[in-house]
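User: My collaborator sent over this chain with a note saying "see what the structure looks like." That's all I know about it. Can you take a look?
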Amino acid sequence: MKRLNLKALAKINLGLDVLGKRENGYHDVRMVMQSIYLYDEVRIEAVPAPGISLRTNLTFLPTDKGNIAYKAAAMLQEEFGLQEGVHITLDKHIPVAAGMAGGSSNAAAVLFGMNRLFELGLTQEELMERGTRLGADVPYCIMRGTVLAEGIGEKLTPLPAMPKCTVLIAKPSVSVSTKVVYEALDAGNIKNHPDIDGLIEGLGQKDLKKIASCMGNVLEDVTIPMHPVIEQIRQEMLEAGALGAMMSGSGPTVFGLYDDKFKAIQAQEKIRKKALARQVYITNVHSAGRDK
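Assistant: Without extra context I'll predict from the sequence alone. Here is the result:
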């Protein structure tokens, strides 16, 4: 039986700026995205019977077309007229509805895996084009690494790799709707825009302190008033020695960058002790170029 075991990596936003809103409701963004070594395990198996079956370790997630990974498989099955079926197993570790692109990364892994498993012959660019039909973050999750995203998030430019560092991830027990956050954002009233150009310079110079000082996320102004625990976590990380700490995406996950793993461990213990978040992980950044 043909099968593949893949790692679907989470992402954080080192910088997230919103430049304006289009007439169709989409926002023009300028973001620096970074893969981290926190991942879901995705297993894809070819089976004789046609169709798609999906199983996951989280009982509240849909296992039909309501799941973006299922949609990814269905799209390729239909386009290429695949006669064999596919069974997908998602072992989820990335926090759900957390601003870390867990679902998008699952879909990216399915596209990548089915292309290889069924020998469809699609290039990375062709996979990314199909990913755009599924969600704005899917093309990035196919590319991975350190990337500048522009337009509505679909224009991707690889950047110099992020210097090695320890990343602390904390997801409080609240869920945030990306749609609701963007709808509440008035792009015209954003006062503090992150220094995306400075961030890119820091990456080119391999200067972790400069990168951390230039980080910023305009969506914090919307999400933090809804969930003040995000700011509490951020302050705990900074007080424990993070070079920078910020909400990822539309939240509520907060991450901190550390040049000393021991300081990250101390912050992790404090956050858990104060019950600010149950899902608290220590990991590191992931450079592009490795296999899925």
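A starting point for your reply to your collaborator: The chain has a mean pLDDT of 94.
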